[in-house]
TrEMBL record:
Residues 165-184 are annotated as: Disordered. The lineage of its organism: Bacteria, Pseudomonadati, Pseudomonadota, Alphaproteobacteria, Hyphomicrobiales. InterPro entries: HTH_MarR-typ (IPR000835), Tscrpt_reg_MarR-type_CS (IPR023187), WH-like_DNA-bd_sf (IPR036388), WH_DNA-bd_sf (IPR036390). PANTHER family: TRANSCRIPTIONAL REGULATOR, MARR, TRANSCRIPTIONAL REPRESSOR OF EMRAB OPERON. It comes from the Bacteria. Residues 165-176 have a biased composition (Gly residues). This is MarR family winged helix-turn-helix transcriptional regulator. The keyword Nucleus does not apply. Keywords: DNA-binding, Transcription, Transcription regulation. The keyword Transcription regulation applies. It comes from Roseibium aestuarii. Pfam families: MarR_2.
Length: 184
């Protein structure tokens, strides 16, 4: 019996007319998400990062060489506002993990690029993050993981449509903006 089972039992006594099956599912997803976010936050902190900075650096890393994107492209891929993106970039520029470079294709624009220090840090952080994620799902066997992944994908498609989240987020777990997707 988990914490959600106890809550559902209380509702069954107080309001037996309610179908609490959705409450059970959503309650469990929320609790699991909170446990996972805490564990991932600990991993990020080992590298002096938080979920937001990890997500931005990881987005640049997975973009491939030259590991540079425009602020607009970054914001779109991370599903955050331009104001939030500017703040995140400014913080990472101050720490020397990213830099602004003039765009070679747009004389007025610039690109956000991983510095060598940023590249080395995010490469180590991603390795640790993936290990943390593996530990977090270790209680499920491969078939259970596949079934859960398929079910959650169906739920996500119901909200966003097929392929709507392509390119977003890197598993940071938390977002600064409504709608930010840092789940993959």
């Amino acid at each position: 019996m988990d914490a959600v089972d106890r809550i559902v039992e209380q509702w069954a006594r107080q309001r037996p007319d309610l179908d609490t099956a959705p409450m059970e599912l959503i309650g469990r997803m929320a609790r699991v998400r909170n446990h996972m976010a805490r564990a991932m936050d600990q991993t990020f902190a080992e590298f002096g990062l938080n979920a937001a900075s990890f997500d931005l650096l990881a987005t640049l890393l997975r973009a491939g060489p030259p590991h540079a994107l425009s602020p607009t492209d970054l914001a779109a891929m991370m599903m955050i506002t331009s104001g939030t993106m500017t703040n995140r970039i400014d913080q990472l520029v101050k720490t020397g993990l990213v830099e602004r470079r003039k765009s070679p294709t747009d004389g007025r624009g610039f690109l956000i690029c991983l510095t060598p220090e940023g590249m080395a840090l995010i490469d180590r952080a991603v390795t640790a993050h993936v290990a943390t994620q593996a530990r977090l799902v270790a209680a499920l066997d491969p078939d259970q993981r596949a079934a859960l992944n398929a079910a959650l994908s169906g739920l996500l498609i119901g909200f966003e449509g097929e392929g709507a989240g392509d390119g977003a987020g890197d598993g940071a777990g938390k977002g600064g903006d409504a709608g930010e997707d840092t789940a993959t």
